[in-house]
Amino acid sequence: MLAGELALAGIDVAIVERRATQELAGSRAGGLHARTLEVLDQRGIVDRFLVEGQVAQVTGFAGVMLDLGGFPTRHPYGLGLWQNHIERILADWVDELGVTVYRGCEVSDLVQDEAGVEVALSDSTSLRAQYLVGCDGGRSRVRKAAGIDFPGWDATTSHLIAEVEMAQTPPLGIHRSGFGIHSFGRVDYEIRNGEVIYGDTGPVRVMLTEAQVGAVGEPTLEDLRAALIAVCGSDYGVHSPVWISRFTDATRQAAAYRERRVLLAGDAAHVHAPDGGQGLQLGMQDAVNLGWKLAQVVKGISPESLLDSYHAERHPVAARVLRTTMASIALRRGDERTTALRDTVAELLGVEESRRRFAAMLSGLGIRYEFGEGHPLLGRRMPDLDLFVAGGPMRVYALLREARPLLLDFDAGSAVDIGPWADRVRAIEARYDGVWELPALGAVTAPTAVLIRPDGYVAWVGDGSDAGLNEALNEWFGGANTA
Asked: d(Cα 408, Cα 384) in Å, to the nearest integer?
């Protein structure tokens, strides 16, 4: 995702990929949330995912499903789509954009200087870059080489997850026992009327709570077989694993998302339990927040200090996810006191205001960056409104396809002037006849103009004048071009 954002901005970018081919063994993560779908819509590629996935309400907490129906978005749902398909679609996109991919090697070391980063690769070659972004997971070698601390909390639970063949069909679905939660499902499934219908054949996805925490090394088929017998009393004739992995509720976050010319995104910057399917969403949205900023700095449009806003904006978002997933893990326990607490939280989520607030948070639609006091739109995602512009009807997100800043002027009489920034910011006079509405907040006062960043977040809101506009343009899109 980050490579795509940089390529759209005309930056020479390359990916160093450990896998020799694009193929990812197994299905892995299971889908996309509403805000991630909006981000893909902003780039004009969301249909590639929708045509392969299955629309469903997937947002939930404490055992309560939080329906996004009625939210002001074109995607009031999640999308069931395995990670191997998500990666393939994104890889096709960046290939179309001409991104270079160095396959079959990985970063082994790095050295920074004032002008760039020397990156040593595992095949004994090296690359020279102005900036390096570690998107290399929770055990990030880039993070360690850059000397960035990774504080947090150690694991309290451990789980095995696998994709295997089984001679006997296990009880499909989610189950609770004295060991904790375990589940069985098939990779082949469809969703009918909100219900998951599994196929009759094909690999089985297994998730089991382990009796012990702290096992080291990669789990084996024998580890999985022993865990199945311990939890279920049978191994169901398990054989032919596609992949087996272990995950815990270890929760950590990078102390800094940037160390001079090295930055972090995705699991390299934050790890947490997979409850709620938040990790993939966080990583992709990290990338979209960082991409345009890094591009402007590389081009010399903005000073390096713009990169500090990446940490300032994304660190609190991930910290909230870490807190939420830790709470979700705590509510999983099977003792009577936790059950009482879970029931109480579920009751609170039955209240409309609480439901909308949690649904907006977990889906990513409620994210707000702290840009100071002002209109409720400030710092929030721009809604994908149906506009009327000079060329006819137009959606807001269609105007963001090129990942350029956008000024929408809804008051033709005011003639908002962006003169010195006209080469960087696209200005359009538009009309919108509907109600302005935000998730969890409802209707808000209609602005006279909005300045939208390439990542789709509102950087300035007009109230009939252009007060503060030049300051916002200067802060986000570089100094005025007076040449």
From this structure: 12
Q: Which domain holds residue 313?
A: 2-152+252-363
Task: Output the pLDDT for position 418.
Answer: 87
Q: Give the separation between CA 330 and CA 341, rounded to whole angstroms.
A: 10
CATH number of the domain where residue 462 is located: 3.40.30.120
- Counts for the chain of helices (H) and strands (E), in that order: 11, 31
42 and 20 in one domain? yes
Q: What is the pLDDT of residue 108?
A: 95
Given a contact cutoff of 8 angstroms between Cβ atoms, the answer to whether 205 and 172 are in contact is no
Q: What is the distance between the alpha carbons of residues 36 and 289, in angstroms, rounded to a whole number?
A: 12
Structural domain count of the chain: 3
C-alpha to C-alpha distance for 5 and 181, rounded to whole angstroms: 39
Whole-Å CA distances, 24 to 30, 77, 161, 255, 338: 13, 26, 16, 30, 38
pLDDT in tens, 390-423: 889 999 999 999 999 999 999 876 668 888 899 9
pLDDT given at position 483: 45
**Can you list the residues of the chain whose pLDDT is less than 70?**
25-27, 194, 413-415, 481-483
Residues 174, 264 share a domain: no
